[in-house]
Amino acid sequence: MPYNELRKDYLLDRWVVIATERSRRPTDFAKPKSEAAKTAVCPMCVGNENMTPPAIMLYQKENGEIKRSQDPLTGERPKNWLVRVIPNLYPAFSPPKQPEDIAQILKSECLRDAIGHHEVIIESPNHDEDPADAEFPQLELVINAYIDRLKELSAKPYVKYVSIFRNYGLEAGASLSHAHSQVIATPMVPTTIQEELNSSKTFYDAYGKCVFCDIIERETKGPRLISEDEDFAVLAPYASINPMEFWIIPKKHAPNILNLTPPEIAAFAKILKVSLKALKDLVNDPPYNYGFHLAINSDAQDSYHWHLEVYPKLAIWAGFEKSTGVYINTVTPETAAESLRKSIKP
Amino acid sequence: MPYNELRKDYLLDRWVVIATERSRRPTDFAKPKSEAAKTAVCPMCVGNENMTPPAIMLYQKENGEIKRSQDPLTGERPKNWLVRVIPNLYPAFSPPKQPEDIAQILKSECLRDAIGHHEVIIESPNHDEDPADAEFPQLELVINAYIDRLKELSAKPYVKYVSIFRNYGLEAGASLSHAHSQVIATPMVPTTIQEELNSSKTFYDAYGKCVFCDIIERETKGPRLISEDEDFAVLAPYASINPMEFWIIPKKHAPNILNLTPPEIAAFAKILKVSLKALKDLVNDPPYNYGFHLAINSDAQDSYHWHLEVYPKLAIWAGFEKSTGVYINTVTPETAAESLRKSIKP
């Protein structure tokens, strides 16, 4: 019996024990479907627009065209929306209350004002239209909304990063079950992203190429590839810290999603849906989180490469992980890739 | 309304949003007691010693004295034990199978053999004798067992760190409900600990004093102090990433627990029990993890200072935390300290 493997992340100084000795099959994680978050009335469903703050951004269909607007200042709330973006009622980061506040964000070396933005993207008028089951035109609108919010928020002078993420299922932190994503714009580059920016810059300076382009080249030939098409590769990363974790990486080098073309958006919608559906079918609709990793600073243009990381919530990080920063994963990424590959519907 | 605060950890480059705008009271987290992990027969209870591997270490009482031994090689399993240490049945790290393996741990920059140790400390013959409710002599034995295991494991040439931790409650990762802790010895210093070692060394070199001694001096005068006695301070750290998180820090500078005296062990048992009981009473017996942070390398003797970090499991880290490494905590450490202070039984 060989030893368990201690693997290091492609970029982060983060180690994981790939526990082959206690290895579990992906289907071992299948649980009876957990209860959805309960609300008497869903504040995100059509007709309940008055239960939420006015929309910052709305997509509506008019004469066959998608129109972008926002809730009118008159207090009306249109009901014919397709995607609706609202401020989070309990924001972690809030917009500056007055322009002077921006210059005073830094209070000390250890304290800053949490100035920024925290938004909720209601992905569909249909309560259950999550990406794994979404219609393609709708899912493309959601991705468009990600791009539109990134464009608007990243242009603000006090915004240094924009995190676009999705929580699915109560156990993954989704307190409302209506299909939605969140956007948080922060006044600093977050730790994990900064470490990735630094490492990828170091790699670029040493080898004259993007580390993610290199990862795609190597991983698409190996046992951790889940799926690929002309535009994207889906792979189980070498040092996955979550059972069944996978990343969707665009083959075309770009630091972020701002310049995706309509065909690329369509291709991303397709591979996102297909991958999440494969996970859903394989492990009985598990909770998950996903988050975009991207760069908005111009000096990362050549060295950083956006991608989406999907973290199924199938294990609990306990005392060891929390106090050491070292993880234990009981499903090898090779097993995860193989089983997700087989679960993909053509 | 002021902004939420972005606070940085004392040592780590880790930021947390202290969400005063969505602030919750500690008692908001009280939930109906979650089900304990179920097993038909508890393999850790007295009489079931044959369901587990032979004990590596046993404490037994003989003629009023505590005797340290191990399960005999003859296959017998004494039943008159007080604390029983066994190898984990599904070890994340395993001992070297042959001496040559030690020299070959490093396979590449990104791959190592997970050589080390993974043990379970059965804390009491009584199923429910968790620290919050333990008898003091028993809890002192548990702390003695921590010290004994640290002494033995840290002396091995391939062991670079020993993590001693405890998971309590199914939601905090305790798959068995019998009172137990775990010990993992690793062939490298874990990321989080290494970052703490580096930062505390930098502080020591700059100011000629230990950063934790400095923290104790400052925090025992302020609103985050929960409790203190001659030997220990209990405080809610400035940048807690968990609601109700608290640390127990010894006032006497020491890099680890190896040289604790019997009176210090008794004092630690007391403050550990009292603090965990205050948490249990306040939030209806919540799940938690705790982990020792310590140093076993001699060059950290002056700069690092051991302590115990307790992480109540009251929130879910979701897509934002997992993809950025920035946390959101909806209970201010000042509120946590105040309510734990009031919950302490004299």
Plain-language structure description:
The structure is a homodimer of 346-residue chains. Chain A has helices spanning 100-103, 136-154, 191-207, 211-219, 262-282, 319-324, 333-343, and strands spanning 5-8, 15-18, 57-62, 65-69, 81-87, 106-108, 111-113, 117-122, 161-168, 180-186, 225-228, 232-235, 246-250, 288-293, 307-312, 327-329. In chain A, strand 6 and strand 7 form a beta hairpin. Chain A has 7 helices and 16 strands. In chain A, helix 2 (136-154) crosses helix 5 (262-282) and helix 5 packs across helix 7 (333-343). The mean pLDDT of chain A is 94. Chain A is globular. The first copy, chain A, has one domain: HIT family, subunit A, CATH 3.30.428. With 346 residues, the first copy, chain A, is an alpha+beta fold. In chain A, the strands form 3 sheets. An 11-stranded antiparallel sheet of chain A has the order 4-3-5-8-10-9-14-15-13-12-11, with helices on both faces. Chain A has a 3-stranded mixed sheet with strand order 1-2-16. The first copy, chain A, has a two-stranded antiparallel sheet with strand order 6-7.
- Binned, the helix content of chain A reads 25-40%
Q: What is the domain total for the residues of chain A?
A: 1
> What is the CATH class of chain A?
Alpha Beta
Number of strands of chain A: 16
- Main β-sheet, spatial strand arrangement of chain A: 4-3-5-8-10-9-14-15-13-12-11
Shape of chain A: globular
Question: Which topology of chain A does CATH recognise?
Answer: HIT family, subunit A
The CATH architecture classification of chain A is 2-Layer Sandwich
Spell out the helices and strands of chain A N to C. Answer: EEEEEHEEEHEEHHEEEHEEHEH
Q: CATH-wise, what's the superfamily of chain A?
A: HIT-like
Can you count the helices of chain A?
7
Oligomerization category of the chains in this entry: homodimer
Q: Assess the beta-strand content of chain A as a share of residues.
A: 15-25%
Taking all residues together, what is the mean pLDDT of chain A? Answer: 94
| Chain pair forming the biggest interface | A-B, 66 and 66 residues
